[in-house]
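quick one
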Amino acid sequence: MSRRSFRVGRSKTGLGLFATREIPKGEVIVRYRGQKIRNDEADRRADRGNKYLYEVNNRWTIDGSSRKNVARYANHSCRPNAESDVLRGHKVIIRAIKKILPGQEILYDYGKDYFDLILKPIGCKCDKCEEKRKAERAEKRRLATRKRAREAKKAAAQKETKRKVSARKEAARSKPSRKSAGKASSRKAAPAKSSRKAKPARDAATFEQPLRNAA
Ligand SMILES: [Zn+2]
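structure w/ zinc ion:
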């Protein structure tokens, strides 16, 4: 490691590490420093709320909670541009896994245990998870809009059926009076009906009359 390739700065979850120059893929960015402690001691410290415990193997853990350990400011991401690694069984480093541009935050995956235990309950704030949540919200909104449209259509159809039914009922209510009127007219119309031939002739006459007048 030559000159520091990063600075500590404001990130959306507090502090973070940001590249101050281009960091090529594979370059070791920073060492994760701290007291080397036994894992059972690490468990006790974890219970007291220490979130900077890096287990290097089944016996040893690095307690990186000291502020002198700048690597502790590197945040987690499910879409990382760096990774942590244990060298020679005890030295913990963070290394670029892709080219990191100046200004970009240096992020590595804290691992499944940390994710499940610490991040999942509060909701991971990384870009990947936020995009996922955003997409899920958009999908929910889309489905809700479709549901509303379907319900509105259904309601309109029900209203239309109701209207038709009430129209039929209305028609049924007014039928008796029409029936009696119909009877009267049918009686009057009866002679015309019996002589079917006479009717078209009369119709033709009434149709031709205005034409003749116009001429
Ligand atoms: Zn995430």
